[in-house]
Amino acid sequence: MDDEFGAGYSRVLSSSLVLAGVGSRTADQALAAGVPPRQVWLAICDVQDVPADRRLGRDIKPSRN
Q1: pLDDT recorded at residue 64
Q2: b/e sequence 27-62, b meaning 16+ C-beta within 10 Å
Q3: Which pLDDT tens digit goes with each residue over 10-50?
Q4: 19 — alpha (psi -120 to 50), left (phi > 0) or beta?
Q5: Residue 9 phi, psi (nearest 5)
């Protein structure tokens, strides 16, 4: 999250943004409840409109199948 949103804002998002995609929990709550990190990350991406080409991280490019 830090790579996409910066260290400070990513902490705010993880503790306060409620994500419908993980049971209407924050990222912190979802992770504590055992939701897989990738599922949490994709829920954040959906809400924050992170483009598909940045959802895998800076150094991993999506395949073009």
Answers
A1: 75
A2: bebbbeeebeeeebbbbbbeeeeeeeeebeeeeeee
A3: 999 999 999 999 999 999 999 999 999 999 999 999 999 99
A4: beta
A5: -70, -35
Q: Is the pLDDT of residue 56 over 90?
A: no
Structure tokens at 20: 């419908």
Q: How confident is the model at residue 57 (pLDDT cuts 50, 70, 90)?
A: confident
Please report, for the chain, the start and end positions of each structural domain, with discontinuous segments joined by +: 2-52
Residues 49 and 64: their CA atoms lie apart, in Å, by 20
Distance CA 5, CA 55 (A): 12
Please state, in angstroms and rounded to a whole number, the distance separating the CA atoms of residues 29 and 49: 21
